[in-house]
Each structure stands twice: as structure tokens, then as C-alpha cells.
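re: that chain from earlier
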Amino acid sequence: FSLLSQERIGTPMSSKRKSNKDVAEESLAASRDKRATQGKRMKAMIGEEAEADQEFWGQDAWNDEDDHDYSTEEEKPDLFDKDFNDTESSESETEVVIKETKKKQSSAYKEPGLKKK
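^ sequence. v structure.
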């Protein structure tokens, strides 16, 4: 592959390789000695946050049982018209509409020279 063909594809050569900075950071973290106090502060902070969350969300204000003033209306079942599903006899209506359109068409002005023979 040439550099030009890789640019067309959209994957430049440099994106496949790790930068020197990334390699240096990985090597520092991997080569560091383990500490006896590693993570102790983080555990304490997480514990404090968990306690604060429990204190906040455990308040009585969040309980639904204590809210006696709130009331809702009873949901009524949906009403369905008995004749809603019945098909109406629309044949007579269709016939009337067709007759009216034919009547309108026949009463329209027609150029005498364009009459069908």
C-alpha cells in the first residue's frame, strides 16, 4: 500500500501505530511498584458517596405511601360503539354520487366543433 491509497480508504498509517506518548504512559504504569495504600482513598470516597446517596434517596419524601393528599380518578374502560364495526350499506350513497357526477359532466359546456360523432 502506498500512503496515497491509504488516504483514499480512510485509514492513515499513523492510526494503526501507537504514539510514543501512549507507549511511554503504558510502560510507566506497568513498571510502577504496587503500593500498600493503593486505592484506599478511592474506597473511602466511594463509601461516602454511597452513604450520601442512601441518605438522599431514603428520605420519607420519596415514599408513595406517605402522600395521602394525592388522588387520581378511577380509569373508565374505553367505550366502544356497538355498531362501529358494522359496515353501512354505502352502495346507495355511491350510486347517488356517480349519478350526480354523470349529470354534472353532461351539463358541462361542450364546444360544438368538438362533439363526438
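The chain has a mean pLDDT of 70.
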